[in-house]
C-alpha cells in the first residue's frame, strides 16, 4: 500500500513539474506582451502565470479527486518557484513568508474572479476581472476583451484534450497571434 502511494506521489510530482513548465512557457509567450499589451514586468508575468494556471485548474476541476490533486501539486510548485524568485531578488528570510502569503491571496483572488466570470457566462465580468488584475493602471482599449476571447478559446481547447494528454505535460492553449501575423 505504501509503495503504491509513494509511486503515485512521485508520478504526480513529475506530472506537476511538467505542467508547471508548460504553464510558465505559455505565460512567457512574446505575443502576450506585444499583441495583448500585458506589462512586461514582474507583476505582468505573475498575472500570466496565474491566468494560465487557472486555465489548467479550470480544466481539472471536473476530474476525480486524485486527478485534481495534480492541480494542487502544480500550485505547490508555483509557491516554491515564487519563494525562490523572491530570495533571488534579495527579499530577506523574514519577509519571504509575508510576501508569499500576499502572492497566494492574489492568486486565489484572481482564480475566484476568473472562475466566477466564466461560470456566469457574462463576458463583461471576465473582461472586468482581466482588466482589474492584469491592468490595474488601466487597460489599453479592447485588450481586456481580446484576452477574454483567448481565455474562452483556451478553455474549449483544454476541455477537448484528454487527461492522459494533459498529464503527459502537453497543454494546448488557444493559439496566440504572432507579431509576424499582425504585420
TrEMBL record:
Origin: domain of life? Bacteria
Task: Spell out the Pfam families in the cross-references.
Answer: Ubiq_cyt_C_chap (PF03981)
Q: Please report the stretch or stretches of sequence annotated as the Ubiquinol-cytochrome c chaperone domain.
A: 35-171
**Similarity comment: family membership:** Belongs to the CBP3 family.
State what protein this is by name. Ubiquinol-cytochrome C chaperone family protein
Its taxonomic placement starts with:
Bacteria, Pseudomonadati, Pseudomonadota, Alphaproteobacteria, Hyphomicrobiales
